[in-house]
Amino acid sequence: MKSINNHNETKSATITRSATDHASALDLKTVKTTSDAPKRTRPRIFGIKEAPTYYPTEEEFKEPIKYIQQITPEAEKFGIVKIVPPKSYKPTFCLNTEEFRFRTRIQKLNSMEGETRANVNYLEQLYKFHRLHGHPVNKVPQLDKRPIDLFKLKKEVAQRGGYQVVTQQKKWAEIGRILGYTRKQCTSMSNALKSAYNKVILPYEVWLAQHKQDSNHSSSSAGMRRQPSDKEEQEAESPSNGGQACEICNSGENEEEILLCDGCDRGYHMYCLSPPLNTVPKSDWYCFKCLTAAGGDYGFEDGEEYTLNSFQKVCEKFKSEWFGPKGQYPTSEEDCEDEFWRLVENPHETCEVEYGADLHSTQHGSGFAPLERKPDGRYVNEPWNLNMIPILPQSLFTHIKTDISGMMVPWLYIGMCFSAFCWHNEDHYTYSINYMHWGETKTWYGVPGCDTAKFEETMKAAVPELFEQQPDLLFQLVTMLSPERLIKENVDVYAVDQRPGQFVVTFPKAYHSGFNHGFNFCEAVNFAPMEWVDFGLECVKRYKQYRRQPCFSHDELLVTAMREDQSIETSTWLKGALLDMQQREMATRSKLLKKYPKIHQVLEDVELLEDQQQCVFCNAYTYLSCITCECTSKVSCLDHLSDLCTCDPSKKTLNLRFSEDQLNEMIQTTSSRACVPSAWSDKVRDTLSTQPAPSIKTLKQFVMEAEKLSVPIEEARWIRDYVTQVTQWLEEANKYIIRKHQPRRRGSSHSTKLYTGEKYNSITHLLDQVAKMSFDAPEIGMLQETFRNLMDAKETATRVLKGDQSTVTLKDYKDAFDFGTSLGADFPEMQQLELTIKQREWNERAPLALENPAIEYDELSQWIQQAKECHIPMNDPVYVALMEKEKRGTEWIQQAEPLLKQVSATATKTKTMQDIQDVLHAAHQNGVPRVPHLYNAVRDLATRTTETVKDVRQLLERARTNSLLSERPSSTEVQRVLKSIRTLPIHVEGMDVLQAEMAKVDTWLVQVKKLFRVSTRNQQKNTLEPMLDDILENVETITTADQSQHHSEGGEGDEDGKPNDVYCLCRTPESGLMIECDLCHEWYHGPCVKVSRREAKAQTSYVCPICDGSQAIPHASKERARLEDILQLLEDASSSLLFAPKVYILLADIANRIQAFRSKVQAFCRSKTQLGVEDIDQIKQHLRELEGLEVVLQDETEFLRRKVQALAPVSHRSSMSSATTSAPPSIVGTSASASPVLQRLPSLTSANWTNGANGTSNVTSMEADDDTSPSRPTDGVYCICRQPASNSQMIGCDTCHDWFHIECVNLTPAMVTTIDRYVCPNCIASKRSSRPIIKLTVKPPSQPSPKQQKRKLTAITSANNTSPVSFYENGRSNKQPKRRSASDDLIVLPPPQPSSQQASYHAHLHHNSNNNYHHHHHHPSSVSPPPPSSTSHPSNQQQSQSQQQAAWLASSIPSSTSTTMAEQ
């Protein structure tokens, strides 16, 4: 047996997840939204028949209630039907699935089945009885090792007359066989069944029969008692003794004798019980109501709260686990239906599911769009929106003042597999409509309203015990019964499967039930068209019988409809309902007044509260009249006056809302309104009888009156149809009527058309048709006049056509034809007239055209075409001459057109210039008609051919006579001529030579592209020329700047001594980001040296590619072309090409400029035997220009690069130990204790001197080994000047261990004594030093402020920056960057005498890192050293530290820069 535990685990897990998954919305892509239906493989279970399915058209679908009224006569026979909307109907699902929450109902399938639930209830009552009497049933009697079905045994015995009858007639064996036992299995079957019945069932049945009699007697007595007043109820609720009142005697006396029920806590006197009790029972005691009411309060328990997403997971898991082990997942609809009914009918297998049913859309929202109103109050929603259907004009719910949830406001239904809705019919027997938004199938079962009585009888016969407990069981929606049982009792049952996007409609009184195949979402609402009124009244009477609470007052609905809707259509059906209401009310009043003639009456039409309008006994609405009493606020209907309270009837009041006269007036008003159509019909009949042919105006007036009076459609349909027929006749007649003011058409040109006589026949038909119709209109006479005119035109045409051709002129034919045309005549004679006119006109004009020598070919063809149309004989001389002339024109066209056809490049050209001349000559021969456009085209072709041949000869002649390639025709001219040749149909002499030469040009251009690295795969045209233009511009810029510089050196510079404001490798003015080299102090554009703004700010120093030869220099092309290769290409072109390519001129210009520049560079290199340090600026300048060129001068570049490496090397070595470094000897007489640095300098003897001519040594040869490090002493040369040790002090670098003249590194002997550790300029430039030299600035330098001039020490540089790398951006300063000259002098102030307490290098470094040095732009000429100080101030430690900082900073600046140290 499948247990529900699995589902409970699923549910618990899902509920746990819902706390964390509360915000997840349902993905509508995971649910079914289409109505695709699989084909059924077998008949439906129990042989249930299918209900019909309707497919409305787009037009029918516009009005839902009207369409349902249309299908009702057929559809109500089935109780339920399905409506499939047109494919265009796709409403949007508007519910917010993320915020939507709902609570389910728990359903146990076998408990829903009536017979199973009755069995369980009886056993519970039986066991309670035996426990109450002290002998509980601990074990159910068994037979054949099976428990005896006591409920079925009790029913079988009762059906056979009871215990005594069965025993006397010995029917125990028969009952045993019905229960499934046989004598072979158990020989003592009869005795066992009799014993079980006698011990367990019989005592309870005897007790129950006795107490039923007492209960019935008590009930009848209670029924005779009046309802207590409000005061009596309060006293009963709070007895005077403060205790419990007895339920039998309704007294609270002898409270110690009152026994409380352990089930309901009601009190009973022990002596009031039957039989009476003498003592209080020791065990639990139950009253008769509790003992016999087991299962009487059966209903569905509440489940958990879900989101759509979490409930979907529960549904999918349940269905997969239920059908999966059976191998039926995914399951078919047939298998799911069979399994549902198996579970419902099996009392031994429990399956528990959940159903989100009856969810109010006002609280949870609707799947349809919310209602929207126009300014005039009308709704704009789609009519099939379930929020709209109850309030459509055709629904009577529009007259109900309150929104009734479930009826006027939709309810939502969220199903899972096997969740069901039990047998029921709709409240007030209304119609219902259900729409499935999405999900799996829902199967419906319906019983038509005509079988309602048989259905209810079958239900009561199947489970009488349940109806005994709950007489209104069919109103509870909690009981299922198998359709098989209903069909056996001849109850018609129909079924239908609802899928997404489909509607299901149920009809009044029709019982229906069903179940879901899986997770789905439906929405339902009720509506009531006018046909429902009788069903609604029947249901109200039934509610009163069962004392069931109605949803609204039926009588109030009728009165409201009468007051609010005064249309004839409403009055027609309402008059009968109002008459019935009046008769019922007056009969009830008469019955009451007959019994209580002196009762007080009050006539008052007032609105009361809801609970003050319903009878206290039967719950019926008392809208028209009610009974009230002063002792209570409750009311009763006129049938239950005695049940209102215990007061005397004379104290009660009969309240009337309407008097008899007012009720009669309502009926009279409604009936009069309903009789309006009859009066209208009588008026129409009288008018037609007196006027056999009424005017169209009169007929239309009748139609307007019918609409105004709201005459029913059926009654006014005949006259509407007749007016429509008359209107159509008038519209058709107006098409042919010729009015007097209408001008007659006289056309000069007549187009042939079909003259079939259709108009003539149509007018004849209209006149015949109007003769049978009875109406009067002016169009009739006008049409008759038109017909007479047509007859006259026809007679005239016939007379002219049959007249003598020699006497009838062309004018006679035209007059007759124009007369017919003005009338729109289309009889065959008109066609003959038109043909005759055309023949006459052609015979007169065609000979004149033939004699015209300048006639064109197109005009000639038109005359021939006209001759064919008007049937000119083929042997007509003029026609023959025209045909002959056209033939000659066609032959000439055939000769000319091939010359003008586009000839492909590969086709062989067979035409010659003579062929073109022959065609032109043939056009002037006699008899050939003119073809202007073709002749002009051939003439233009001849002209172009002549000019092209001439151009070819001139090109070849110019190319062969000029010796210089640059003076020959360009390849562009040749391409233009070749393009013109391709358009000619003839072969031009010399074309092959041009093509061959252009092939050579293309080959040469390929070599040029290869040299300049231009891809041959590039699809863009002319990519080489822009590149060469850029290279030429580059060469012009650099060489022009070089010339300007030479002029400035000759004294032609600006007032600052600067030749031009050009910088960088590209030799252009400043632009954008500029960065300065720390060695040569040249400014460079950031993009030219590939330095970004971020990199410039991050660097502590910068050395340009000119000073540091190891850096790569970016160029526009990946690999620059060599001048030698360019010259070779130019030489090849001059020797092999006949025509000059455009790029040849560019290349020649580039080569000429480069050669001139090379000559200047070579002249500089040869200007001295050896270039020295004094030439380093000019060397770097030329190297900068060479590296900036986009054309390589390899020899000159390599020569100057070696010179820069030799004269101004940049060290890249790692630091070396001082013990392994060669050091020059120190100066004689220098104290070794003067400085820690100088202590490492050995004495310099005369043997170690290397003297030059004037006390200085020559520069190291430029052909020295490049592998020798310039910063390492080699062959006795040191320092950045690469000179031997001289008669001066030298200082050693603690990083690279090279030696330097102190004057070369801007130091004085006094400064040296204060330095503890020294780093040379080369190491600083190679970024080996962590000590910053210059700080970053983004502005050009400015003059120092007075506050800054008060500093102890200020370093002034021509670069004016305070950053590790000097750079600025164009546009941020009005000061141009200034290059420094190597010839600037270094002026050093003498330091103070060393103090006894020297600051260490580490202290100096710490102080330096915490102080800011301000660098100011200042020219050396403006600085004058102050006089030296003769005394020292040992106590001034700050001055000593400043002197150390100045000495270190000055020594860190290369000698090629101009730096001034000044002490303020």
TrEMBL record:
The keyword Metal-binding applies. It is found in: Nucleus. Residues 1214-1226, 1430-1452 have a biased composition (Low complexity). Pfam families: ARID, JmjC, JmjN, KDM5_C-hel, PHD, PLU-1, zf-C5HC2. CDD domains: ARID, PHD_BAZ2A_like, PHD_Ecm5p_Lid2p_like. Residues 378-544 form the JmjC domain. Residues 116-209 form the ARID domain. Its cofactor is Fe(2+). It catalyses: N(6),N(6),N(6)-trimethyl-L-lysyl(4)-[histone H3] + 3 2-oxoglutarate + 3 O2 = L-lysyl(4)-[histone H3] + 3 formaldehyde + 3 succinate + 3 CO2. GO terms for biological process: regulation of DNA-templated transcription. InterPro entries: ARID_dom, ARID_dom_sf, JmjC_dom, JmjN, KDM5_C-hel, Lys_sp_deMease-like_dom, Zinc_finger_PHD-type_CS, Znf_C5HC2. GO terms for cellular component: chromatin; nucleus. Residues 51-92 form the JmjN domain. Its EC number is 1.14.11.67. Residues 243-293, 1061-1110, 1276-1326 form the PHD-type domain. Residues 1403-1420 have a biased composition (Basic residues). GO terms for molecular function: DNA binding; histone H3K4me/H3K4me2/H3K4me3 demethylase activity; zinc ion binding. Residues 1246-1261, 1355-1365, 1453-1464 have a biased composition (Polar residues). It is an enzyme of class 1 (oxidoreductase). Residues 214-244, 1040-1059, 1211-1231, 1246-1274, 1336-1464 are annotated as: Disordered. Keywords: Iron, Metal-binding, Nucleus, Oxidoreductase, Repeat, Zinc, Zinc-finger. It comes from the Eukaryota. Belongs to the JARID1 histone demethylase family. This is [histone H3]-trimethyl-L-lysine(4) demethylase. It comes from Phascolomyces articulosus. The lineage of its organism: Eukaryota, Fungi, Fungi incertae sedis, Mucoromycota, Mucoromycotina.
